[in-house]
Amino acid sequence: MTIGTLTKGTVVADDVSRHGMWSSRLLFVLAATGSAVGLGNIWKFPYITGENGGGAFVLVYLLCIAAIGIPVMMAEVMIGRAGRQSPINTLRTLVRDSNANRSWTIIGWMGVAAGFLILSYYAVIAGWAVSYTFRLGSGVFDGATGAHTSQIFDGFLGSPGSLLFWHTVFMAATIFIVARGVARGLEVAVRYLMPILLILLLGLVGYAAIYGDFARGFEFLFSFDFSKLSWGGTLTAMGHAFFTLSLGMGAIMAYGAYVPSKASISTTVFTIGALDTAVALAAGLAIFPIVFAVAGLEPGDGPGLMFVTLPIAFGNLPLGAALGCVFFLLVSFAAITSAISLTEPVLTYLVERYDAKRWIVAVVVGLFCWLLGIGTVLSFNEWSGATLFGLTFFEVVDYLSYKIMLPLGGLLIALFAGWVLAKRIVVEQLGFGEGTKWQLWNAAICVIAPAGILIVFAYSLYETFAS
Ligand code: TRP
């Protein structure tokens, strides 16, 4: 089914998506921010900042958001809204309207596959956060030492049953929300969870300012010491800018299909980018002062920062148990509003392809993703010795999606939007006219973004094969 608005370039009454529409521009901003803000901001950003020496890394990350992330996100929203279908069928329509080569639809197919892979492990790690919400609340970390918290974390990872349980809980909640559709599922979730998340986060920053070593945390995040930044760190910053904005696999494209025609793409995308960045920085401002407040803890502890280092801090600070419980609740909310966006490209495609009911498709997709996730669950225990090129099942899935499919997808999206998509469609969607704004956009999408992404992509390949 296609929507016949593109060839004439006029907006007619059927300029809506069969899957639903955001009820306002604000709801789109909340939903896309919900997708962007996730484990990437709260779990990953602080620890990679810690590992890469702080401020200078943050500065490079901010540059990448502005120069690569924002233009590619505009391209995704624009493509989605121009087609108003699942990413796969949207690309088919736009390829036809632009007289382009059909191979460009690979963007849609690869996105579906990447979404599948990412969700399968995202649900497992988000499950850890959900379980830690209860763990912190129970007070097991009161007065904890490092040995104590690593023992608890290792014990947890070593138990496939517990990991599977929380993986199942998280996946079921995700599928429950997406099965209800755009208005009754996605919108209801983001309408409540996003404001709660922002309030909790501000509360945590306030706590960090009172009880933490705020000055040291602030300095760590914002003092630009370039001697601490390696070339590898620069590229990590670029890759992360990409992941944190949910780009490269059609999630934002799928959400773009439900954006009202009147909404300005540039304004909404800038708002989403700014909110995502603000949340990552606020997470840093909440976490580092708390880490520095407890003697002997270091910010460069890697992925364990959230599950091993932070619980020590929570176990030794006033009101720590309650606070830790709130913190992990916040992480869980952030993760679920991201997870729901990962299913949208495949869900909408299957609904279009088989004319099926959304909830049936959601349950089927959820089941397959859950099954695939069992591989990640076992990677931390039973299968930890089973490796391919030295990578566990989880690491292979993560590598394939994060380091290959996302950069490749983002590159193709930028090239498609910049060089292939018919100009009248772009002009109509962006509503810029052809002045300075247009030129900036053109330079960013045709040259700067593709070049930047290529560097990240090439580097990640080099890193693996050279080591
Ligand atoms: N951006 C989310 C995070 O920071 C993760 C995510 C959701 C994502 N949807 C995506 C990443 C699509 C890449 C592509 O946690």
- Rg, Cα atoms, Å: 22 Å
> Based on DSSP secondary structure assignment, what is the total number of beta strands?
0
The proportion of strand residues reads under 5%
Query: Which shape, going by the Cα principal axes?
Result: globular
Question: What's the structural blueprint in terms of helices and strands?
Answer:
Elements lengths: L24 H12 L2 H13 L3 H29 L3 H11 L8 H32 L8 H12 L2 H20 L1 H31 L2 H9 L8 H14 L6 H6 L8 H29 L15 H7 L4 H35 L3 H22 L13 H28 L2 H8 L5 H31 L1
Helix pairs in contact: 1-8, 1-12, 1-14, 2-10, 2-12, 3-4, 3-9, 3-10, 3-12, 3-16, 3-17, 3-18, 4-5, 5-7, 5-14, 5-15, 5-16, 7-8, 7-14, 7-15, 8-12, 8-14, 9-12, 10-18, 12-13, 13-14, 14-15, 15-16, 16-18
Tryptophan (TRP) binds next to helix 1, helix 2, helix 10 and helix 14.
Could you describe the 3D structure shown?
The chain is an all-alpha fold and 467 residues long. The chain has 18 helices and no strands. The chain has helices at residues 25-36, 39-51, 55-83, 87-97, 106-137, 146-157, 160-179, 181-211, 214-222, 231-244, 251-256, 265-293, 309-315, 320-354, 358-379, 393-420, 423-430, 436-466. Helix 1 crosses helix 8 (181-211). The radius of gyration is 22 Å and the shape is globular. 53% of the residues are buried. The model is unreliable at 1-13 (pLDDT under 50). The chain binds tryptophan. Tryptophan binds at residues 35-36, 38-41, 118, 243-244, 246, 248-249, 251, 338, 341-342, 406.
